[in-house]
Amino acid sequence: AMSGTQGAVTAPADIMLQAVKAMPSGDVHLTLDAGNGRLEMRSGRTKYRLATLPADDFPELARDAAHVSLTLPCTVAARLLAETVFAADTERHYLAGVRLDTPANTRLLRATCTDGHRLVAFVVGLPDGAPALPPGIIIPRAAQADIGRLADADGDIIVRIAGTRVVIDVGATRYTSKLVDGIYPDTDRVIPPLECKTAAKLRRADLAEAAGRMLAVLDAKSTAISVEVKDGEMILACKRGHDHEAEDAVACEATGGDWIDGISARYLVDQLAVMRGEFVELVKDGAGAAYRFVDDGDVTAVHVIMPMRY
Asked: How far apart, in whole angstroms, are the C-alpha atoms of residue 119 and residue 88?
């Protein structure tokens, strides 16, 4: 049972977390020594004394009036945020996050991530009665990962766009983050059409496993492999310098003739991991063009990977 007196203080969360993890099992007693501004944490014979700041100095991040409020199932929010974070950029700030938007003339909610080399976009219907999103909403990469973890729960999550901030409520937890101040590029123009010259349909798990085997001989900086379609197979191959090689093949149904091109094995593994169907179709408008992957378990999703030299 918890007991104590009311009050508030600001304490270093990272140190508190490590302290609690290190403490022996049992109750933790918190005592504020207001005279010298120290927070005492005690469990058995273990004791920590941490510096504090006045609670009044803690910033209030959610004062802006809500412009848009969406209530989504946690499973949907996790799909839109946690399962797109792999494709967000880690450097350019305007790409270092997920764009949420409502495509023109639709009642849809779309989440898009790209780092310029690969792209993933998931689309769901806007909840009944919810307004279309205003343009320019980019949730930072770190925040989308945090929110994705919060959404790993039952029930609903409330997403509010409050001025320059996003405010998340799930259960008893409220999470607030600034939005990215930037302009997301027009990604629609780089998405290949579904009606491309060449296509190859194959089992997703088989392709993922074959691409993963290529990584055994590649390094983190160079993950390019060749992808060749001929004689009813997709053949994956790579070299590491003059010393190491790998090759594997997966049965496929091909249309539009044979072809060969390059791709990143790491990007391929990442992209296939968030698809859901038993089969995946790879469509391509000729050599040197972008790859588009059609997930037969989620045909509204968009998956694009740019080619690489191999």
From this structure: 8
Q: Name the percent of the chain lying above pLDDT 70.
A: 97
The token pair at 137 is 């909403």
Long-range contacts of 13-20 (CB under 8 A, 24+ apart): 15/48, 15/50, 16/41, 16/50, 19/48, 19/50
Q: Could you tell me the pTM of the whole model?
A: 0.84
For the chain, the average pLDDT equals 91
The residue-averaged pLDDT of 103-116 equals 94
Nearest one of 81, 168, 171, 89 to 121, comparing CA atoms = 81
Cβ contact 176:169 at 8 Å: no
Distance of CA 19 to the CA centre of its chain: 30
Q: What is the pLDDT of residue 2?
A: 58
Hunting for tokens 């790859």 — which residue is that?
291
Q: What does each C-alpha distance from 21 to 38, 43, 48, 174, 254 come to in angstroms? A: 20, 12, 12, 23, 54
Instruction: List, in order, residues 6 or more apart from 135 with CB less than 8 Å away.
Output: 101
Average pLDDT over residues 20-29: 90
64 pLDDT higher than 70: no
Q: How deeply is 86 buried, as exposed, middle or buried, from its count of CB atoms within 10 A (0-12, 13-18, 19+)?
A: middle
CA 101/CA 80 separation, integer angstroms: 11
The identity of residue 180, as a single letter, is: V
Coil vs helix vs strand at 117: coil
Neighbours of 26 (CB within 10 A): 9
**Averaged pLDDT, 204-223:** 93
